[in-house]
Design a protein that fits this description.
single chain; four-stranded antiparallel sheet; globular
Length: about 325
Amino acid sequence: MLARLAATVVVLALAACGRRSPTGSDGPALTSDTSGAPDGAACAASDAAAVLDARGAACTAGGIPGSCIDVASCRGARSSTAGACAGAANIECCTPRFAADITCDPNAAPQPNACLVEEPGDAGCPAGMARVDTFCVDRFEAALVDAATGAPWSPYIDPGRANVRAVSLRNAVPQGYIAQTAASAACVAAGKQLCSDAQWLRACQGPAATTYPYGATREPGVCNDARAVHPAVELYGTSDSWIFAHLDSPCLDQEAAGLARSGAHAGCVTAEGVFDMMGNLHEWTAATAGTFRGGYYVDTVENGPGCLYATTAHDTAYADYSTGFRCCAAAQR
């Protein structure tokens, strides 16, 4: 299944990168000096997910609402249960069911990062990285590309053990749904490593050791840090407790006013030019017991303020829509 998904992702990504005029109707032209895309290159892939297939009749399995659909369409983050639906044997109860106004297709793998490339790094640092004292840190939360082809990996799909490499891209949808073990492997494939806790804190707090990336005092809205409604409540149309066991849906990070593109919050930047270290996605560090830092787009307060936010409740194999990462590397001079 993972191999077939990876092949599909690569084909879609390679088909998405093309050329168009600067005044093309599909959006503004992107240039390498400001957007991270090569001159004249267009990212034809869309942020919009494919429309969800017919929902089918409502059903319930294990106390969770579902839809009576073909088992072939119930895959990925959803599961099917036989015996809860009328009709042919291939019609089973697929759970969980989305809210009535949700159109996202969880079986799709949107490619919002086609054609983006890393910007030059600071002196002594690889591309896409900022210099912080004696080390380098990714300017942006990491996205993934296929390590063999360079084609982008959908940021809404858990890479598992796929052969992927971390990249630091301006204006990209960063990779969620990733475990610390996979994030570490992706950094290594890029010639880097996950940041240690000490490196991560130094990069976030800056040379003045401030609580927030931008300073000593919290400024609501400067970072992507306080979405009003939890995305699972919106996706599933309920606040019942079962929804929190279903935080792996690719549709969670595709909701409006949720996960932002890297660097979109221009004020959420450190003195050394590192973006989004507070909010947007939780960021795994190299801590062996499992730690992610900085909060995410729903909360940057519950486990500490700003740069001091740290979650230690999950082991390194854990992944959900909120888990992301960035890489560090030794500076060369």
